[in-house]
Amino acid sequence: MIFQPAIIALLLASALCVLALAASAPFAVEVIRRWDIKSGSERQLQLERRTYLFSTLLTFVLGLQLAAVLLFVFNAEKMSGMFVGAMCAVGTLNVNALGFPALNAKIAVFFLAAIWLAINHVDCRARDYPLVRMKYALLLALAPLLAASAWIELQYFLGLKADVITSCCGSLFSEGSPTLAAEASSLAPVPAMWLFYGSLGAAIALAAWHGHGGGRSRAAAYFLAGASALAFAATIAGILSFVSLYIYEHPHHHCPFCVLKPEYGYQGYWLYVPLFGATAAGLAAGAVQPFARIESLRGIVAGFSRRLAAIAANGFALTAAIATAMIWQSRLILLEH
Amino acid sequence: MIELHSIRKAFNQGHDNEYWALDGIDLHIEAKKVTALRGPSGSGKTTLLTIVGCLSRPTEGRVRLLGEDISGLPERFLTEIRRRRFGFIFQQFNLIRGLAALDNIILPAYPTGRPRRELLDRAEELLAGLKLGHRRHAKVEWLSGGEQQRVAICRALINDPEVLIADEPTANLDTHLAGEFMGILEGLAAQGRTILLTSHDPLVVESAVVQRVVDMRDGKLLSSPR
Amino acid sequence: MKLWLAKQRYLIDFTLASLARRKARNLGLLFVYIVLVFMLASVTLYTHALRQEAARVLAASPEVILQRMVAGRHDLIPPGYQERIGRIRGVQKVEGRLWGYYYDAVTKANYTFMVPAENAPAAGEIIVGPALERARGLAKNNGISFRSYSGKLHTFIVAEVLPQASELVSADLVLMSEASFRAFFDYPAGHYTDIALSVANPLEVRNVAVKLAAALPDARPILRDEVLRTYASIFDWREGIVLALLSAAILAFGILAWEKASGLSAEEKREIGILKAIGWETGDVIKMKFWEGLLISLTAFLIGFVAAYVHVFHFSASLFEPVLKGWAVLYPRFQLTPHIDGVQVATLFFFTVVPYAAAVLVPIWKAAITDPDSVMRS
């Protein structure tokens, strides 16, 4: 393992998240077993008050996960100098087999936490808290996922070894160490462009359709969630395949991370922040939909779902617009007009 | 307006020192009337007040507000109802020290997010109505007892509630100030607000403003309406 | 949305007023918080600046340096050695270099004597670094004598003083002509200290090194990138160690924050009770407290970070120097080039704000669930 501040910070953050969820698990079990909304007993009051703690905790975990994803990528970028052949974050993440799984797990936990908070949000608006049991069962399910994500991250960091000069045998040290792939493989630009604009367009259209129906159409919400997931994947693929090339103005530099660097004016954030926000909103719109069946939630789910659809539509539109603007301004010519 | 059915309220439930502060209350509080709860300390009148005012929930029994059952509502929604429909005047006034009179008055409206200008205008209007306009920027700890109570009344009115709840409003006032308070109360009743108060001060319960007195002892109601 | 914003503004207003009312109580925690940020920020800024400095030193150095090894020790390059390298594809230039160390008994410090590849001074003249200028009170056209290892006294005229820009690189440098160098050290003719190779394409460097190692089994090629990597990980490691040591301080701070947040004064408890009674929701109180924590954190972070910046870049990190620098004795006055790095700031944030947030989370919740009827019961 490389003993390094950012790594320690990331591990610390993961440990905190796992600890927070682990410590709250017994209380979640108690909520599931003892919850009785009809009762006016002091115990019920205590359980109700405890739900505030869980909402706060999960918000904390969500925020921390988001910050951790950023720091994780940031740090991978910075450490690339330490590994032979690693030119940027992709290289660092490829140092061992767990780099990308660790990043993906982090992103997955972020989306799951966002979905949980969305369900929590609608539940808290209904006067009978109809989803309490299910919510806390989900929380218990989230805990092991979070722990797994932390474990993968730990293993990844433990497996990192810098190629350094050792004093004994001199210089050709890291003999025969395979050169790491500094570039991610990518799709050809033309199909990637079709996929990119097509999926974003589909997600926006579905979000508009869902929103237009006042958030009441269940099918539209499920399609929107699916389209959001697809758009997320397609956008990442598109960034890899052609957007990054335009930003770097270099026909072979496929990297989803370098765009976050100051050299490129932190342009990546303009792409990723709306994309992550929109995807989370789109997924959440689908995730809350099954509960529209419950009497007390019907109006709440519809209203909230509509708002999520609006966020998703705007976010995806912004992503597409920003990517297009970046391509427009680029001096690189990839496709002959 | 507010109906209570066999309300019971326990404290320290399940422990050795468990006791029932309210034990089977049935009461109907009528709209636009001034009702007083009278009884010795420990009779449960303040506990009853907290249940009517959505500050706490009954352990057993039902509370109906305008026909809607609110006894099983989680705190989150009770708070919403409380903020919108009830204004409170506490025995100790319970103003926040270090804040000016105006800032204290607009506090209950913060969670509503109403524009500040609108709130301040309303607060000024209320203060002027109680002849306290000149003290609006004074910190509340510099105010006299009577002034503090008037600030507390303004605070209770900032969200324009239908129901006013006052707990022992004259306990910390001398006779003169208590008389003034009753004058203010009369004005509020005339505006058509429902008022519920607890008191064992004859000046209050025997005043003409109070239309109905309910006697309490040991967590139970004693009399039928006067 | 507008309503939500207005509400947050009210909460911030209230918490600001409430913080102002409890200055003394909050100042203590704020002070400790600032000190913590200051310490951690000093460490990270300092090591990062050193790393940058090292990178700058090395940026000017050749891609590959070839040393000859005898019995595992660095030895002189004999005549004819350079020719044996022959032509390797990708190598632009092969140069023998001459440099060595000289211990000056007057200043009790080591200087680096060197023959520059270009613009070497005329025989009998030297160019000195700024540290030497200070230590020996030299100026342009002054003369200075050094007693060589053979015992002879050599006098040189100072032709020029190197600019201050990057003192760390040039502070102890003494540049002279090849003839002066060989005469001063009695350096055998035709021998060199090592060989520098310039390689234009970074991807070729490794192949060049492999070919060199094959052609000259007694040679050791040192790649610039490897040196850079080694420096980087040494500094990271040191920084990590210091942070690990300081983790005790972070923990103590977390406990203090927990203590402060859970030990609400009677007055504060009463206030929260009042707020809840008059219509504030538990969530509103939590949000209000969240803003309070955020304001404290940002204030502490900003003040601590700025203080650390001043400490490191204007006072040369006088508090930490002995622990972290440890690679030279001479330079008492070198100034680091200011540099702030996003990862550093983000990491620092994780080390300070996150523990604080985690520590106050539960106490905040505990305070927020105060019974709304508590004000009536007292």
Question: Describe it for me?
Answer:
The complex is a heterotrimer of chains A (337), B (226) and C (378). By secondary structure, chain A is mainly α. Chain A contains nine helices and no strands. Chain A is flat, with a radius of gyration of 23 Å. With 226 residues, chain B is of the alpha/beta class. Chain B is 32% helix and 25% strand. Chain B contains seven helices and ten strands. Chain B has helices spanning 45-52, 75-85, 101-106, 116-129, 145-157, 175-190, 202-205, and strands at 2-11, 19-29, 34-38, 60-65, 68-69, 86-89, 163-167, 194-198, 212-217, 220-221. In chain B, a hairpin with a 7-residue loop joins strand 1 (2-11) and strand 2. With 378 residues, chain C is of the alpha+beta class. Chain C has a six-stranded mixed β-sheet. The longest helix of chain C is centred in the middle third of the chain and has 39 residues, at 224-262. Chain C starts with a helix and ends with a helix. Chains in contact: A-B, A-C, B-C.
The main pleated sheet of chain C reads as: 6 strands, mixed
| Uncertain residue ranges of chain C | 327-333
- Give the total of beta strands of chain C: 11
Number of strands of chain A: 0
Which pair of chains forms the biggest interface, and how many residues does each contribute? A-C, 40 and 47 residues
**Class of secondary structure makeup of chain C:** alpha+beta
Rounded mean pLDDT of chain A is 83
**Gyration radius of chain C, to the nearest Å?**
31 Å
Shape by Cα distribution of chain A: flat
